[in-house]
Write a structure and sequence with these properties.
By secondary structure, this protein is an alpha/beta fold. The protein has 2 domains: 199 residues, Aspartate Aminotransferase, domain 1; 252 residues, Aspartate Aminotransferase, domain 2, CATH 3.40.640.10. 41% of the residues lie in helices and 14% in strands. The strands form 4 sheets. The chain has a 7-stranded mixed beta sheet, with helices on both faces. A 4-stranded mixed beta sheet has the order 1-2-3-15. Strands 13-14-16 form a 3-stranded antiparallel beta sheet. Strand 6 and strand 7 form a beta hairpin. Helix 1 runs parallel beside helix 15 and helix 8 runs parallel beside helix 9. The longest helix has 28 residues. The chain binds pyridoxal-5'-phosphate. Pyridoxal-5'-phosphate binds next to helix 6.
Amino acid sequence: MVLDGTAAPAAIHATSSRTVDDLVEEQERRFVARQPKSRALHARALSSLAGGVTSSWQITRPQPVFISRGEGSRIFDVDGNEYVDLHGGYGAGLAGHAHPAIVEAVTRQVRLGTHFAQPSEDAVVVAELLAGRFGLPLWRFTNSGTEATMDAVHLMRAVTGRDLVVKIEGCYHGHHDSVQVSVAPGEDEDLGAAGHPTGRASSTGIPDAITSLTLVATFNDLESVVRLLREHPRQVAGMIVEPIMMNAGIVHPVPGYLEGLRAVLHEHGALLCFDEVKTGLTVGPGGATRLLGVTPDVVCLAKSLGGGLVAGAVGATTELMGHVASGGYEMVGTFNGNPLSMAACRAVLEEVATDVGYERIAALRSRIDASLTASIERHGLPAHVVSVGAKGCVTFATSPVRNYRDFLRVDDRYNHLHWLAQHNAGVFLPPWGKTEQWMLSVQHDDEDAEMFIDNFERFAAEVSGALRAARSVG
Ligand SMILES: Cc1ncc(COP(=O)(O)O)c(C=O)c1O
């Protein structure tokens, strides 16, 4: 089915006796029925791609969705279904699809050669633009967020000569060893005290000896960091943190938290790194760093920086990057600063992530926030909207989530149902709805927002019916 904005979107068709689980089951059936070609491709892929996908997080329930193309704010699956893309490639989609500025820059560079492993003028321009936006003078490039946070952790260790790093429980910073600790520990694990979490390896294949070098603190709890710094005097190299936590829905820092972190870390001779791989250009032109007015020692970028191409960046103070410049820490990579990526990054900074682009996004965000909040109130859903810049989420809880322990208490069935209901009605949200956020691009428009809002209103009505039915049975 091709959605042209006039076709009636699929409704959940709940009767008052249906439970949330019944609604999920019905939407999953509908989902599978709409995508026979995706199903067939996945079955074929199982014999050549591990798990039939290219990254384990593409193994979604009820089945992975294979995409054929993207255009502006829309994507199309291999079955011909059209979607408003609010998945945004897990946060890489600020430019939308086939943005003319990216197409032009990349096409030009392809003709001029795509790889030299030597610096280019575009790399200098991109570094200058990032320095202006983030207030950190010196930059290097990587090929992913994982590489950026890995280099940042190495650099903090190299500069301080210390081994320990602090991270936040429930934060994801990529899949290298030092940060694969307490990423999404389950309630059934021994999590330790709320303000003093026990570090848990988040992946197999990582030796305990490495996991034990990463200490775990609680978001929005300065005291939990101070405690670790006191317990390990002069041993902590630094702390890596998302300034706005974005792998647990969206969790804003409480006022003074980030300033406090910088002060206590510096007091103990340790460094502060902001992982802005997700927040980077999506919350505003200079990321959370500029939005919240706290400049760390190191910042990591990736995702939307590349306009859909592979790119990451690390920015830092003169003191820290002096260590790189002098060879004290060798920040290397065959494809670092690749000319194709640099051409795309330059186009993003000069022609996509502009004041006009951010104004357009802010107007759509306000409209979505207000409309979803009105639906939530009209139907008495135990939920609220959290958003910032191009990103937003519905948290299915009445009180704000301040940290990972609060987040763990949120029932994830509602987000899954929301994902399915939007998907079946032509809006592609990121899977893993409880952890992820929707993402607007500079190419989304009012019609896109309207489809999302209308679908949500229908979803809210159905869920409130199911909740009423459950209450009357109970
Ligand atoms: C906050 C954060 N940091 C780092 C990463 C890793 O980035 P990449 O997937 O490009 O390696 C991610 C990926 O989702 C992320 O959300």
